[in-house]
Structure formats: C-alpha cells, structure tokens
Records
---
Amino acid sequence: MTTKEKNILDSVIYSYTSNTSQTGEENQILKETVSKLKEELDKFKVPPLMVSEVRNVFGKDAIIRLPNGNQFYVNISEECGKVKPGDMILADQKNLTIIRKIPTTRKFDIESFVIMEKPKVSWDNIGGLDDQVREIKEVVELPLKKPELFKKVGITPPKGILLYGSPGTGKTLLAKAVASSTNSTFIQIVASELVQKFIGEGAKMVKEIFELARKKAPSIIFIDELDALASKRIEIGTSGEREVNRTFMQLLAEIDGFNPLDNVKVIGATNRKDILDAAVIRPGRLDRLIHIPLPKNEGRLEILKIHSKNMTLGKDVDLDNISSLMEDLSGAEIRAVCTEAGYFAIRENRVKITRKDLLKGIDKVRQEEATEGEDYMRMFG
Ligand SMILES: Nc1ncnc2c1ncn2[C@@H]1O[C@H](COP(=O)(O)OP(=O)(O)OP(=O)(O)O)[C@@H](O)[C@H]1O
Ligand SMILES: [Mg+2]
C-alpha cells in the first residue's frame, strides 16, 4: 500500500468511526427522551391518593376519617412508618391502605380565613335603637368592662346574645359598635361560608376561631347568618346535613366550654329567628334575644341625620318631612337614599342637595326594593 493509499484509508476509517459515535450519541438522547416520556405517562396512570386524617392507631391498623366525615378501619403499609392520631396521610383509593404521611399541619392559618379587626364605630353612628343599645351595653359591654362587678353581685352574665331582625336594620353595626366601645377584637364569621367553604372542616374551624378569640381577648365573635348553621332540621340524612350538624354541635360545645367571664362574647345575627334551633338560644348560650326592628318615625329621622351629616343640604330640605316619607325603609335603605340623592346632585354639577334630590332618591330605593321583591316572587313565589 502506498502512503497515499494508506492516508485515504485512514481518513475513511476516521470518518466512519466518528460517524458511529455520533449515531451512538443520538441514540442515547432518543433513549433518554423515550424513557422520560414513559415516566410521564406512568404518572398519568397512577390513581390519586386520598388525603385523610388518622383518628386512632391499633398496631398495624388505624381508623381514618375521610374528608366527607366517614370513618374506616384500614391497614398501614410497611413503608409508611409510624403514624399517630391527628396525622394527615395519603390512602389508597380502593382499599384505603395508608401509603404515606404528609407533612401538612392540622392547624389552619385561621387568621387568614376570618375577618378580624378593631372596628371604630361609635354609638353615635347608630340611630333609633336606644332600647337595644341599652340592652347590649348591659349584657356585653358591662361584663367586658367590669367583670369584678358581676363577681361581687354573684351572677354570671350571658355568654352571648342573638340579634334578629330584617336585613339592613343595623345588626352588624351594633356588634361593631360594642366591639369598638370595649376595645375588643372583632372576629366576624359568616355561618353559611363556614359550612360551604370548609366542608369537613367546619367543626375544626369553630374550635380554632374560639381559640383565636381567647388569644386576642377581649374579643367578640360575630356569627352572621347564624340560621345557616343553627336551623332546626327534621331529619339528618345527607352528609352535607351531617356536616352542618357537626359544625353546629362544635359551636354549642365551644359556647358551653368557655367561661362567661373569659372576656369573649358571642353575638349571633339572623334574619330568620323562626327557623333557629332552640338549642342555640337555650339559657347559658345565646340566651338574650334582641329584636332589631325597622326604624319608627323618630328612629328614621335620627338615621337620616346621621347619614346626611356631612352633606350640604339646601334650604328647602326639611329632614323631618323627608323621614316621614320613608316609612318601612331600613337603616341601610335610608343611607342608600342619601347616597342616591348625592348622585342626582353630582349629575347636575351641584354639591348642594335639594329636597327634590332626596325625593328622587327615595323613589329609586323604593323601586329597587320592589324589583327585588318581584325577583324573589319569580324565584320562590
Ligand atoms: N340604625 C341604624 N343607624 C344608622 N345606620 C344604620 C342603621 N341601620 C343600618 N344602618 C346603615 O346600614 C348599613 C348596613 O347595616 P347592617 O350591616 O348593620 O345591617 P344588618 O342588620 O347587619 O343587615 P343584614 O341582616 O343584611 O346583615 C350600616 O352600615 C349603616 O350604614
Ligand atoms: Mg349584617
């Protein structure tokens, strides 16, 4: 072989081997891609695991509670290791064997779920509810401000009160005012949210809300729409009803559990006292029932004065007369009249509110009330 021939052969061999190493690399990359895709595909085939809570442990078995409240007696798999009551675990969907523990804590960040504030509502912001205000002062404000007085007299003040009455009559406002006058933390929960948003967790939430209230005492727990939780039910059939019932029982237990002089008061509010379960208004619980009525003549005038306080009223405005035209309107509606009147003025580039603006405001609010009534009739009538 000549040197020339040998050189050619070398270069051919070189290009051949470098080519095979290139295909080898490509092959490797493709193999990796395939195996990655396979892995991904496998993930789609694995059935989801059920998140539940351990209730009791008996050696290699345990009782777990599913989110819907049902409890099962199940195995603990070898690889899971030790579990204890209260742990959150993942269970197989079919036989509910405990597969592994998950590191979530049982505690909610309760503070992010409830509305907690130190409201600034003075008693002067409330019109026409003198008797009710007096009663709330006696039952809620006085024990928070002067617990020693009750010890001396030897009586225990009520743990809470129930405010009931039509929408927009000032129930929330009253609760905030008493929180403000006692410088208490105001913790507001809406009962219907408690049962809808936190399915399976309602009872736990209630417990933690009371814990929070004690930690932030003095405090007032305001439970709005109490009827969603505490309405009397004839039969307890569906799991949803059972859930509501459990939450309700926890609420009663918490109310029973705290000391009336613990610096925590419960204020419930409802538009439907008629459907409330008697258990919640039994003596020793929310045993003061305070009716918040629609405002009467003088009450309406007071509320109107409160909400028109910062308005510039024209000379032709006679608030006495205006309030007499607002029969049957709630406090919230009276406020709405003022707002609407303000808008009528704004539309005409005025800052002064005239009698006509207020009359138009009344018309508008009454009309809205009427259409709401019609909608209601259409839906339920
Ligand atoms: N008696 C009142 N005095 C002054 N303002 C009032 C009065 N009642 C209601 N209002 C006004 O109406 C608004 C709504 O009232 P509030 O939220 O207290 O009603 P509510 O009774 O809690 O109604 P709901 O049953 O719909 O929850 C208040 O923020 C306030 O501006
Ligand atoms: Mg309210």
---
Amino acid sequence: MALSRSKMALMRHRTANRSGIVIRRRVTPAGDILVTLLTPQGKLKAIARGGVKGPLSSSLNLFHHVGVQVYQGPHNDLASIKQAVLEGALPKLAEPERYAFAHLIAEFADALFQEGEFSEQAFELFAGALRGISHQQDAEWVALVMSYKLLGLAGILPQTARCARCGNPDPIHPDPLGGQLLCGNCAALPPYPPESLDFLRGAVRRTVRANIESPVPADQRPALWRALERFVSVQIGNVQSWRQLVPYAEAGQI
Ligand SMILES: [Zn+2]
C-alpha cells in the first residue's frame, strides 16, 4: 500500500536523531532498557524494547554520551530507541568513588531539569561536571562545586545576604531546616568556618575553575553537603533518589 505524501512526511517527522548523556538507566523484567538522556535540547526519556539482549545494551550505559535515533509513535508517549551509537565515554568513572559522585550529579540534574526544557547550558555544565569527576583528583570537590553551579543555572539559589528566618543582614550560621543561612539570634549551631562561608556566598557567581582551584577543607564539607541536601529537599520536590546519594546527609546533626 502506497503512503500518501503527507503521511510519509509525518513519519519522517516522528523519527529524530538526538545526542546526549545517559543520566538514568533501568532494565524492566521484560528486558527493555528505559533511559533518560540529558541533551542540549533538554531531557529525553526513551525505551529500547528488548534492548538488554541486543546490540544497544552496551552503548546505553550510565554516563555514556550516545547518539540515538528515536521514533515517536502516534499513540505511545515514550520515544522508542531504534539505534544508538557511542560518542564518548569516561572509563575512569567506573572507579567506585568517582562513580558515586557521577551518580549523585546525574540524579541531581535529573531532579533539577524538566523533560523538554531547553537548556544547552545545563548540558554543557553537566558534561563538564562528569569530565571533572572523572579526571580531577578531588572528585568530591568537583561534585560539590558543580551541584551549586547547576542550582544557580536552574535559578534556585540559597539566600546568603540575609538571615533566612528574620532577615537580618550578613548571616553566618547554618540553617539546619532550610539549608540557607541564619543570623546569631536565630541560630542554634556555631557559625560556618570562613572557607565554607566564602564558598556559600560566592560559588555560583565565580567561575567553575576559580571554585575548583580553592577547595574547602575536607572536614568542612559534610556541613556543606547537609546544607545542599536540606535546601534541595525543601525547594524541589521528588528528590528522594538523589537524597540517598548525598554523602553525610543522614549521619549529621539536623
Ligand atoms: Zn535571624
């Protein structure tokens, strides 16, 4: 049966080539691979039906940069992956500590950016974060810096100029409930050390490189992770899977 011209145009339209990084991957009991890709055109969820047994399996791995051909059927809303070509991989991310931080930042990007939301900058920042976590010696510091940079890009920023509770200027104490800053009158915890305070106030506006080059001492980082975890939990819903990956978030005093 010959297809009309318009119908053929429609079918062509439904097949698209996209390039992105696998930030989430799940295999269903039926052997399908469900993936979420972060692409310069936004987040894309897609399924490779029967993918586990086929040639797509090895290319559709977590943190791989892949080029995919997807087909969007007329009735099912989940795009179907027809082909996948590996465009780049960072083998050092397989090291356990680096893997943990890559996983954390991937879940974070997934929570921050919505499907279909266009953000070339988010893609570039995320790709840079993975490269940094792969190559830099201090993977934890890269993950912390890039988490705050991604927050800044999403436009969700902790308040640092005024106390989150009463509005007094220049707060320097942790805010254990909201992950922001409190003044001396409102706070129950001792103030942040100067390095942490400088990071919280300046991380988003400084360049990635400037941040990476002045790391906060390791013993101050648990408090920074806790603040990030609290802030994101309060400001963004549905971050359960991300929260479980944040180091120290559960252990510390809240
Ligand atoms: Zn206050």
